[in-house]
Amino acid sequence: MNAKGTYLLDFETLHVDLRAYDLYRVIYNSCKDHQWDFKIAEAILNGYRQVAKLSKTDYKLIRIWLRFPLSTYLVLSPFKRFPLTEKWLQWALSSERRIGPFLQKLDSYAATHSS
Predict the structure, then answer these.
(1) To 10 degrees, the CA torsion angle through 20, 54, 50, 62?
(2) With CB atoms counted within 10 Å of each terminal CB, which end of the chain scores lower, N or C?
(3) What is the reported pLDDT for 42?
């Protein structure tokens, strides 16, 4: 508050790690419906690295966000975007099973491409 009025700063969506978060969202949205094919993520990361370097911390943050069991959360959440049925639970489990090998490939990629 000041003489000119009252201002509200919205810190809910403020990110100091915007680069990693944006990459996580692009990778998640691009890979989840394609059986977690790492070649898609690799193309995204290779393209991004032509513009800016990624640090080990960037890769760690991307990995942490990708590891969150979002598919399972969507099925079990109270928001009912996906109903709690055997079909949707199987879908969530299938997605969770694919993310492990994907993250191993991400770790290998990060080991050779981080600054």
Answers:
(1) -30
(2) N
(3) 97
Predicted local distance difference test score (pLDDT) of residue 90: 86
Q: 5 — phi, psi (to 5°)?
A: 140, -170
State the amino acid at position 52 in one-letter form: A
* Contact indicator for 85, 60 with CB cutoff of 8 Å: no
Q: How far apart are CA 38 and CA 105, in angstroms?
A: 7
* Segments of the chain scoring below 70 in pLDDT: 1, 8-17, 79
Long-range contact set of residues 107-113: C-beta below 8 Å, sequence gap at least 24:
107/59, 107/63, 109/38, 109/41, 109/42, 109/45, 109/59, 110/54, 110/56, 110/59, 110/60, 110/63, 113/45, 113/49, 113/54
Predicted confidence at residue 69, as pLDDT, reads 78
Report the SS3 class of residue 15: coil
Under 8 Å between Cβ of 66 and 96: no
